[in-house]
Design goal:
Number of strands: 7
Strand content: 15-25%
Shape: globular
Radius of gyration: 21 Å
CATH superfamily of the largest domain: NAD(P)-binding Rossmann-like Domain
CATH topology of the largest domain: Rossmann fold
Mean pLDDT: 96
Number of domains: 2
């Protein structure tokens, strides 16, 4: 039985992983949490919280489910206590790319991040359809990268990642740098920011008197078909007028050099802003 220690088990991401580990008796999991609210959440699930001293030195795998701004200091405290040959799993590429994860040559390091259920992910039940984060009942894909170590570390990290993010659609093996291109560059720096601007526009049209129910149906409906067209979910195109107005709007809304956010030099700066 694989011994796993989950650090930050009562946090936002840690709690989701905890729920899935409770469904997997193949793992012997120890749960670490120091935040008072996190401890209370775990206690509500009848989970016994372990101590670092008892849980880390015996673990085959340590999962660092803690925020980016604290993971450097926590890894420097936890990882020196791990037994040789064990595996470290982190959940986000920011800290590893910035080099702040404590490193030991005799350990393996794997990064695993969820893609979350896709916009066009069909689910048979209302519960699954509304599992927006994934990890409960909606299928989602994951990306996994080997940062340090041999293939055995990757295979173990991939298997654990599939179980802790289940149910899984696809598992994509990529590099650390490719994962950082996806996040933060693509889905946070670009996509989330663009969606925040769209939401600001939505709020503005309501201020201008458009009925909120009409605005919500109109905007969300158009977003869905626009994404479907652009990502080839349907065999269709926009109207000539729509193409004309988007051509006019792009230089108004975006700087000419906006794609520099995907250059590794800029991504490394994005990462530094995240972890500081």
């Amino acid at each position: 039985m694989i011994k796993i220690t989950l650090v930050g088990a009562g946090g936002k991401m840690g709690l989701r992983l905890t729920d899935n580990f409770l469904k997997n008796p193949q793992y012997d999991v120890r749960y670490l949490e120091i935040n008072k609210q996190g401890i209370e959440r775990l206690q509500q699930k009848n989970i016994t919280i372990s101590t670092q001293k008892e849980a880390v030195p015996t673990a085959d795998v340590v999962i660092l489910g803690v925020p980016d701004i604290t993971i450097g200091a926590i890894s420097a405290e936890i990882i020196p206590q791990m037994k040789p040959g064990a595996l470290v799993i982190t959940l986000d590429p920011a800290a590893p790319l910035d080099g702040i994860i404590y490193h030991r040559d005799d350990l393996g390091y794997v990064i695993a991040h969820p893609c979350h259920p896709g916009i066009f992910n069909w689910e048979p039940t209302e519960e699954a359809f509304r599992d927006f984060y994934g990890g409960i009942s909606a299928k989602q894909s994951i990306v996994v990268a080997l940062m340090h170590g041999n293939e055995d570390y990757y295979k173990l990290g991939e298997k654990i990642s599939q179980d802790m993010y289940a149910p899984i659609k696809n598992t994509h093996r990529i590099t650390l740098e490719q994962m950082a291109i996806l996040e933060p560059a693509m889905v946070e720096t670009l996509s989330q920011t663009a969606m925040e601007v769209i939401k600001e526009g939505y709020d503005r049209i309501i201020e201008l008197g458009v009925p909120e129910t009409a605005a919500r149906d109109f905007v969300l409906g158009h977003l869905r078909i626009q994404i479907a067209v652009l990502f080839k979910e349907v065999n269709g195109t926009f109207s000539d007028a729509a193409y004309k107005i988007s051509k006019r709007a792009k230089p108004i809304l975006f700087k000419d050099d906006w794609k520099k956010i995907f250059e590794m030099e800029d991504i490394k700066q994005q990462v530094k802003d995240i972890v500081k």
